[in-house]
């Protein structure tokens, strides 16, 4: 197996855009865990969803397979790894910059996980969110769920613009 070929396969996968936030790639989001070319020329890709119920996973798999087939790879296998769970800390700095440029408010540090059960909270935890349009911190949560479950809908109280905030996960 050639490192150049493996790198090319990784580059193909890394360039696939996220279907819900098409300003960033799957690699920018940290969803791509591994891309391996096997001795027989097959490619095995391991991805981690942003959360276990992510409705975009079927589209993500299809887009990865399509990109690899378009690059000449005929035998493609896509695996899903749920552990360790994805966290917004895996979003690259380039990904965060692309999200901001597209008008998203980027997440802060993800909450620290502890061993044992995850506590259920029925109210959103307060966040300090900056408006991506004007930079104001005078913002209001309008809805904990926006166009996708991984985003919350906010409104800037200064410029009055609504915007999505990528939740800390």
What key attributes describe this structure?
single chain; 169 residues; alpha+beta; three-stranded mixed beta sheet; three-stranded antiparallel beta sheet; 4 helices; globular
Strand arrangement across the biggest beta sheet: 1-2-3
Portion in beta strands: 15-25%
Taken from the alpha-carbon principal axes, the silhouette is: globular
Distance between the termini: 36 Å
What is the arithmetic mean of pLDDT?
Answer: 89
Main structural class: alpha+beta
Cα-based radius of gyration, to the nearest Å: 18 Å
Number of strands: 6
Q: Portion of residues in helices?
A: 10-25%
Query: Could you state the order of secondary-structure elements as H and E?
Result: HHEEHEHEEE
**Unreliable residue stretches:** 1-5
Characterize the largest beta sheet: strand count, sense, and whether it forms a barrel: 3 strands, mixed
Number of helices: 4
Describe the structure.
The protein has helices at residues 3-14, 26-29, 57-70, 93-101, and strands at residues 32-37, 43-47, 76-80, 139-143, 151-156, 162-166. With 169 residues, the chain is α+β, with helices and mostly antiparallel strands. The chain has a three-stranded mixed sheet with strand order 1-2-3. The longest helix is centred in the middle third of the chain and has 14 residues, at 57-70. Residues 1-5 have low confidence and may be disordered.
